[in-house]
Amino acid sequence: MQLLLYASKDDENRKRLMAAVHEALPHQPIGIFWQLTSLQELLRTIIEPDSIAVLSVVDQAELRRMQALRGLLTEIFIVLIVPDCKKSTIRLAHLLLPRFISQKEDSYSDLKEVLKKKVSTPH
Prior knowledge:
This protein is α/β, with parallel strands linked by helices. It has a single domain, classed as Rossmann fold. Helices cover about 40% and strands about 20% of the residues. The protein has five helices and five strands. The protein has helices at about 10-25, 35-45, 60-65, 85-95, 110-120; strands at about 5, 30-35, 50-55, 75-80, 100-105. A five-stranded parallel beta sheet has the order 2-1-3-4-5, sandwiched between helices. Helix 4 (about 85-95) links the parallel strand 4 (about 75-80) and strand 5 (about 100-105). Helix 1 (about 10-25) runs parallel beside helix 5. The longest helix is centred in the first third of the chain and has 13 residues, at about 10-25. The chain is globular and about 35 Å long. The termini are close together.
C-alpha cells in the first residue's frame, strides 16, 4: 500500500493536514506532492494495491484541473479535502469518486479515523 498526499498551497491547512495524516498513520511512509503534474506522473506508474490518496484542493479551479486525473484514480482509495460545501464544489468532488470528503476547516478527526480504519481493515 502506498499513501499519497497532495496539497498545493503552503498554508496552515497543509500543515494541519500533514500532522493529521502523520498522527493517524505514524509508521506509514508518505509520498508528498505539491504539484498536480508530479502526482500525475506517479499515478501513471504502477500503484500498489489498496493505496490511499489524500487530495487537498484549494479552490474549484484546482478541482476542475484534478478531473484530468480521474482515469488514474479508479483503483485508489480517495480522501478529498474540499475548500467549501458549495453545491458546485461537491458536484465536482464526487466526479473523482472519493470514499471520504472533508472540508479544509474541519478538525480532521474524522479523517484520522477513516485512515486508521482503512489501514487496519484486511483486504
